[in-house]
Amino acid sequence: MHNELPTLDRLATRRPDIYGGITTCCLCGRAEETREHLFSCPTLNEQNTTAWNTAFEKFKKEVIKVADKPGKGKKKQTSKSKNKLHNAHDMLDFFVGFENKMLGSQRELMNLALGFINKSDVKRLGNAMDNTRGTITKARDVLTKLSYRFRKYFREFTWKTRCKTVTEMEKTRGISNKDKKKKKKGKKGLTGSKRKAKSESNNQEKEGKALETMGKVQEVVAKWITEGTNWLGV
Ligand SMILES: [Zn+2]
């Protein structure tokens, strides 16, 4: 994810000798293939929805599981069942509202995939789950997991589908793996591109590790916000 996702617009910048002038989305043919477009491409709509549904189902189960555990600060045993019922209603409200928000905005979905957790969502989920101490932390944890899972399924469904089509396009255009590994015209040797490919895969590894660490997620988000602002032309 992030800036390492080799969408056609990025590839055209990185390897204009191969990808220059072929940045149009291979799936819909309607727009330039940017990271943002992967979330709005009509042809990828089904894959994005599947990625969301798969992640969201797990998220809901987890929220219910976490909310069912008695909180430390909860002392009113008598009104426990009443509270539970109240919480269930609040949680359902949260699920519906949150899902509508996410599916109603490609920007929101992309932000979630990028690891951006909305503070107001954390607060609303925390309140819906319970009002005891530590609930906000729990809410943030489950939302972070949702983000991680959505990113994982996005890669599994959306990105894989996209890559299949791009590989076909490359075949049609006679772009081989050899071409991709070859250094840009006019320069000899493979060391440079090999090193570059290695550093890219290292970056992806690092990225994966970083995303599993909550602290680092914030860093990545901060970085994205800075770069994303320019990228979105805002
Ligand atoms: Zn498209």
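^ zinc ion complex. The radius of gyration is 21 Å. Residues 167 and 175 are 9 Å apart (CA to CA).
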